[in-house]
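Notes to self after the Tuesday call (sharing in case useful).
The group wants a holo model before anyone commits to mutagenesis around the pocket. I volunteered. Ligand is zinc ion. Logging inputs and output together so the record is complete.
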Amino acid sequence: MNQDRDIIMKSQENQLKIKFMKAALKEAYKAEQINEVPVGAVVVHQGKIIARAHNTREKEQTFYAHAEFLAMMKAAKKIGSWRLEDCDVYVTMEPCPMCAGAMIQSRVRTVYYGVKDLKSGVADSIINIFELPFNHHVHVESGLLAEESQKLLKDFFKKLRVK
Ligand code: ZN
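Result:
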């Protein structure tokens, strides 16, 4: 019985994770529509999305305008604190050093990311920053809806090369 309940709980939990990652993907599509590298992110607090953002680095000419960084800034504003202790970040691509650093600094609970970024990802690809002994430990889960995130990125760069 207990085992059954565990399985049901687990599948409900997974469905929620997929729902949140889909919201992040929706943001990534918004980035794609304005010719930005299609990466999107949401921040979840107490089971609800409190911030959404997509990459706008070209449009804003701002180096920190990565999806997850912007979403975390919005979340902090909403909560009224720089501490994102009970927050989870869903981002369609593996975070870069800047965003991973911001997650550690703001004490994010868990980061869920989709596709790996072999060129600048630091949650596995280049190194795993989150394994290092900082004062705060961010949990990491990878691979959520990775295929769709990857396809979106691949198609985007293909189109860029044709132009
Ligand atoms: Zn970043």
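Two things stood out.
Helices lie at 2-33, 57-60, 67-79, 97-105, 146-162.
The mean pLDDT is 95.
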